[in-house]
Design goal:
Bound molecules: S-adenosylmethionine
CATH topology: Rossmann fold
Number of strands: 7
CATH superfamily: Vaccinia Virus protein VP39
Number of domains: 1
Number of helices: 11
CATH class: Alpha Beta
Order of helices and strands: HHHEHEHEEHEHHHEHHE
Shape: globular
Structural class: alpha/beta
C-alpha cells in the first residue's frame, strides 16, 4: 500500500474515533485544505457528467428544461444543480445529503467560477442558507427515506449510490416507486470501483473484492464507506422496487486494468459473478417510475 493511502486511512481511523461532531469538523477542515481552492477543477470534472446526463435524456427524447429535480448526495458544493439550472434550464433542484458539507465560501467560489468560465452571473441571496440562489433547496443531514419528497420529475445522483447502505438503497427506490408520479425518471451515475485505487495507483480497481464483508467493514470508516455492490446487485434492487430499466451502460476494463484484476484473489462472496459483472465500471442507469 502506498504511503499516501496509508496516511489517508490512518487519518480517517483517528477521526472516526472522535465524537461525530468533532470528527466531521476536522474532516471538513482537511477537505477544505485539500480541495478548498480547487473549485475550478471541481466544476471541470462535473462538466462531463452534465454532458452525460444530457445525452442520457436526449436518447429518450427528453431534456432538463422546466423539470423539478431531486438530487441524492449534494456533496461539497451545488455544482450539478448549477449546471442543471443555468445550462439545462431546469425549474428547481432539491438536493439531499445524509451529511452537511456545503459552506458559504464554496457557494461564493462556485459563483465566481460560473462567471469566469461561462459568463453566467449568479446573484447570491444573502437571506438564504449558504446564500444559495433561489430554486436550489439544500436538505443536509437528511435521509431521503424518512423525508417528504418535494415535487419531482427527475431524480439524479452522481457518485453517491456506491456510498449508500444496501438496505437504504432498497428502501429509497421503493419510496420513489410509491411517492413519485408515474413516468418520473431516475438517472444514476455510479462509480462501483475501489476508490482506494485512485490514491494508490498500484492497487487494482477491484482490490476490495478480496475481503469478506466483515474484513471490509473493519477496514473502512463513515468517511470512506463503500458498499462494494456489483452491477447485478444494483439491477436487482431496481427490479425489486418495480422500476422500469430504460437504459444501462458501463465501462469494461482495458488490458492493464484487467491484468491487475486477474491478480486479485476474489473472495468467495463474489465468485458467483462473471468477470464482466465484477469489473463493470462507471455504471450509468436510467429508470422510469
Ligand atoms: C462522493 S460524494 C459525491 C457528491 C456529489 N454528488 C458529487 O458528485 O461531487 C457522496 C455524497 O453522498 C452523500 N451520501 C451518502 N449516503 C447518502 C444517502 N443515503 N443519502 C443522501 N446522501 C448520501 C455523502 O454525504 C456525500 O456528500
Amino acid at each position: 500500500m502506498s504511503l499516501k493511502l496509508k496516511l489517508k486511512e490512518g487519518l480517517f481511523r483517528i477521526l472516526n474515533l472522535l465524537p461525530e461532531k468533532q470528527g466531521f469538523y476536522f474532516y471538513h477542515k482537511i477537505q477544505d485544505v485539500v480541495n478548498g481552492e480547487n473549485m475550478l477543477q471541481r466544476v471541470k470534472t462535473n462538466e462531463p457528467s452534465f454532458g452525460l446526463l444530457q445525452r442520457l435524456l436526449q436518447e429518450k427524447g427528453l431534456s432538463l428544461k422546466g423539470k423539478n429535480i431531486l438530487e441524492i448526495g449534494s456533496g461539497w458544493a451545488p455544482v450539478m444543480p448549477y449546471f442543471m439550472l443555468f445550462h439545462g434550464k431546469a425549474k428547481s433542484v432539491s438536493t439531499f445529503d445524509l451529511n452537511r458539507h456545503f459552506s458559504k465560501k464554496a457557494v461564493y467560489r462556485l459563483n465566481e467560477v460560473f462567471f469566469s468560465e461561462y459568463g453566467i452571473r449568479i446573484t447570491p441571496e444573502p437571506k438564504r442558507a449558504y446564500h444559495l440562489p433561489k430554486n436550489i433547496e439544500y436538505y443536509p443531514n437528511t435521509n431521503l427515506i424518512a423525508a417528504d419528497l418535494p415535487e419531482t420529475d427527475l431524480v439524479f445522483s452522481r457518485f453517491v449510490l456506491e456510498h449508500v447502505k444496501p438496505e437504504d438503497l432498497r428502501l429509497m427506490h421503493k419510496k420513489f416507486k410509491r411517492d413519485l408520479k408515474p413516468g418520473s425518471l431516475i438517472v444514476h451515475l455510479i462509480s462501483p470501483s475501489d476508490h482506494r485505487a485512485y490514491v494508490d495507483k498500484n492497487l487494482s480497481l477491484q482490490d476490495f473484492l478480496q475481503y469478506s464483508e466483515a474484513e471490509w467493514q473493519k477496514k473502512q470508516t463513515k468517511f470512506d464507506y463503500h458498499n462494494r455492490l456489483r452491477l447485478p446487485q444494483y439491477l436487482a434492487i431496481f427490479k425489486a422496487a418495480d422500476l422500469e430499466l430504460l437504459h444501462v451502460e458501463y465501462d469494461q476494463p482495458g488490458e492493464d486494468i484487467y491484468k491487475k484484476f486477474r491478480a486479485v484473489k476474489i473472495h468467495e462472496d463474489f465468485k458467483h459473478f462473471t468477470d464482466e459483472e465484477l469489473t463493470a465500471g462507471s455504471i450509468n442507469v436510467v429508470l422510469r417510475v
